[in-house]
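[Automated response] Your request has been received and processed.

Submitted sequence:
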Amino acid sequence: MKDRTRKQLLESARYLFIHQGYEGTTMSAVAEGAKKGRRTLYYYFPNKRILLRAVVEEELNRILTVLQAIVEKDIPADRKIMEFVISRLNNVRHSIFRNGSLRSDFMRYMRTIESIRNRCEKREIRFIEQILIQGIREGTFHVDNVHFMATIIHFTAKGLESPYVRGELGGDENSQLLERTASKIIFGALK
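Generated structure:
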């Protein structure tokens, strides 16, 4: 029951943040949208900033779940690392577009969002480490320092996020070019 109530409140907040922006959303409107009382909302989320953090955390956890499923796939490490990087880019882009006007608020609340992302990034780097270790065992990758290489791959992918989201690296014809280029960069470092 508690989880369902929390989820309803988060979904109401996400919807309102998308359609009215962070500043235009009131805690009363969130409670009303979830068909809950304000007291219930404040029990779960003492203020709007904490509510925003929870909405962002839920979205990032959704992406991490997708990435974890890739790590757990029974496929060779070289295919897995490429699927991981491209899926990460696609999921970040999808998340930003799915969350509409949160995009405009994104820069204003970048510090809050980045503090949440930092925790998620550590998990992403551990996922990449798992793929690298698999590739070393398979004899596909040759890496001196797994953690260092995983960190480099992670921040390379992160650096591609902004131009990818803006469409500078996306599109039908460019997505294949992006994959080929990312593949050359990643495998150049790993083989």
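Summary generated for your ticket: DSSP finds nine helices and no strands in the chain. The mean pLDDT is 85.
If you did not submit this request, please reply to this message.
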